[in-house]
Known about the structure:
Elements: H1 3-52, H2 58-113
Helix pairs in contact: 1-2
Amino acid sequence: MELRGTEETTEIVLERMENSLGSLEQMSFDAINITDKLVNGIDEIMQCTDELADCQDADRERILKRIRELLEALLNTAFSVNNVSHELEKETVYQRDTLENIRQIVEFLYAMSDV
């Protein structure tokens, strides 16, 4: 394969990588928004159960205790997913920077070969 063919192939690969990173960034953003909503919604439900817990019914207290336990477990899961989403976003930014560095190196090498 001649140098120009290699250059064109490299550009296609870099463009695909860039498109993939764009999709990854969007997915990260969407995941963060969804998990933020999940965390906030669960927190609101927990506040409602606290208010409901002031009622004097013994069965209600037992049920509310169980609901709260379940919500706390769900909230912990949501925080975990949220943290992973934020880490995914950071990694995507790192990959984008890496892509730009690769592009600069490739452009430099092709410029050198034209000399």
